Amino acid sequence: MNPLALGKRGGKVLGRYRWLAGFAANPLAMAGAIVVGGLCLVALLAPWLAPYDPQAIDTWHILEAPSSAHLLGTDSLGRDCLSRLIYGSRISLLVGVVSVGIATSIGTVLGALAGFYGRWVDTLIMRLVDIMLCFPTIFLIMAVIAFLQPSIWNIMAVIGLTGWMGVARLVRAEFLSLRQRDFVLAARISGASSLRIAFHHILPNAIAPILVAATLGVGGAILTESALSFLGIGVQPPTPSWGNMLTEGKDNLEIAWWLSVFPGLAILITVLGYNLLGEGLRDALDPRSRQG
Amino acid sequence: MALLLYLIKRFAVLIPTFLGITLISFFVMHLAPGEPMSLQADFNPKMTPEMRQRLRAQYGLDKPLYVQYARWLKGLLVLDLGRSFAPDRRPVWQKIKERLPVTLLINGLSLILIIVIAIPLGVKAAVEQNSLFDQATTVLVFLGYAAPAFWIALLLMLFFGIYLGWLPISGLHSLMGYGQMAWWQKTLDWSKHLLLPVLVSSIGGLAGLSRYTRSSMLEVLRQDYITTARAKGLPERVVVYRHALRNALLPLITILGLSIPGLIGGSVIFESIFAIPGVGQLMWSSVMARDYPVLMGNLVIVSILTLLGNLLADIGYALADPRIRTGIQSGD
Q1: What is the pLDDT of residue B331?
Q2: In this predicted model, what pLDDT tens digit does every residue of A208-226 receive, in sequence order?
Q3: A224 touching B, CB under 8 A?
Q4: Fewer CB atoms inside 10 A, N or C side of chain B?
């Protein structure tokens, strides 16, 4: 290893947390972080924040416009929309985080295998990626859901299983560029096993782009879940999810605008929050991307 | 010659991809719990084990999986995708065929709309980087990425359809009096019905493509040959549109090809919202009815369309890039 590289590495250790300062100085990134953090709090504290029981039917007050008693109005069963919206945040966050966790794990392992071993392993995995990218994802998800019962667990699994390709490509590219570097050679000479080199020496370098892709992926997963629930093949009523609340909105479009407006706004703000957070992380962790 | 070679190479790559698609579709269907015919059998109270066995034999479900797959693949070659499980028992291909034109029309119009709006928008944003215009489009792009398309559809229906009452909110044409209309009235009627669906299905692509155009243009505008062109004293318009845009467009062709699955995937959602009888709605109703042959057929046909879209993008790329057209590789 040449002394220049050592110097660089030393600088990196000193500045390990410097990106946090860059992140904090970016108002959009901070806005994203605040939105995401706020939503996690709302989801966590839902039972204390919600003014009503989200499932309580009140036939005396159906389809009431927003008022001081029901801030966001009531639906066709007289349930309080604000309470349902608050509880719905749990579904969105859970689906977003778990399905991205699944996708990221699969993508990381497959991408690492492809990039580390190369040759036919690489060809096989990359061909699989190409094939998966050729399916309009929602069609594939719908075909699978048709066999399984639509439930939140199945939705998370299916979104995860159809969303790993981006991460796989990213990790593979990182491995391809790193596997010839000096530090990998050094590890190899000192007798480290392939597995140790791949996951202990190379993978940590890819953490930053994986983190960014995962954060941006959460927004996409939340959008997919809401679309599936809206179509009636996602989270099933009476469990409130923002997507199935919008189905209610569509059914009462001509008489109750509030049912269509607020759940969508919640989705918009949440996804925007994750996207801003992801972009902010990208800018902070990889200064090269800032120009583009 | 080089162009032909390139296209043959691209086409050769499509074949294993296509086989992979059919393989995944087939196994998604057959490895799932419960066999395709069980729904039919379950709903028939008179079904005896012997009858069930006979039905299995009739559908070929008693054969090993690879035999079934080979048989299914052979059917696909002549567009025989089996028959629907729905009571009408019609061939799947017929069902898809009658719904394909509407879906293609809407997706085609959206694609045109996306290209016509997003590229000039992205170019202007790049040329005037950090201007008010640039910042405004950036905000719009972020909103476009984050807003669920079906929610925007609902909002547009609320505003234009219900509040203003300007546009119809469902179907392809008016139900009453449509037969008596002159051709131009029919065209107008169709356009009014198609306006919102086309608009909604282009939102995602608009946001994506204008973003990519902007960054692609910024990349090109930094190059030395742009500085050279400016130094020669060429008018800015020529520099931007002739020298920069042409080079910036290249990567966009690939992006467009990659955006086709998303565009077609969106059909499921907006066709269900606007009650448009297209492939997306067929997909949705076959999921609801667990009509497996239709489901499979849809999956494969839509994937083929995607592959064709990618091939078209490859051809476009080859035509636009002289390095591929002439087979001369450049230094980098």
Answers
A1: 43
A2: 889 989 998 999 999 999 9
A3: no
A4: C
In terms of Cα–Cα distance, which of A106, A140, A155 is closest to B26?
A140
Domain A18-47+77-289 is found in CATH 1.10.3720.10: yes
- For residue B41, the model assigns a pLDDT of 55
* B214-250 pLDDT, tens digit each: 988 888 888 888 888 888 888 888 888 888 888 888 8
Residue (of B67, B68, B94, B62) closest to B81 by Cα position: B94
Cα gap A287→A285, rounded to integer Å: 6
Residue A211 touches partner B, C-beta closer than 8 Å:
no
**How does A100-134 read in b/e, with b if 16+ C-beta sit within 10 Å?**
bbbbbebbbbbbbbbbbeeeeebeebbebbbbbbb
Minimal C-alpha gap between B153 and chain A (Å)? 10
Interface of A with B in 130-149 (CB under 8 A): 130-140, 142-148
Q: Is the peptide bond before B91 cis (omega within 30 degrees of 0)?
A: no
Domain boundaries, chain A: 18-47+77-289
| Domains assigned to chain B | 96-325 (1.10.3720.10)
The packing angle between helices B2-30 and A137-147, to 10°, is: 20
> What is the distance in angstroms between the Cα of B276 and the nearest Cα belonging to chain A?
15
Among A168-172, A210-214, A254-258, B165-169, the minimum mean pLDDT is found in B165-169
Around Cβ B116, how many Cβ atoms within 10 Å?
A: 11
What is the rounded CA–CA span in Å between residue B125 and residue B131?
Answer: 8
3-state secondary structure of A127: helix
Helices (H), chain B: 2-30, 38-42, 49-59, 65-77, 92-127, 132-146, 149-156, 183-221, 224-231, 236-238, 245-273, 279-288, 292-320, 322-326
Residues of B in contact with A219 (CB under 8 A): 145-146
Which residue type occupies A194? Answer: S
Of B20, B148, B290, which is closest to A227 when you measure between CB atoms? B148
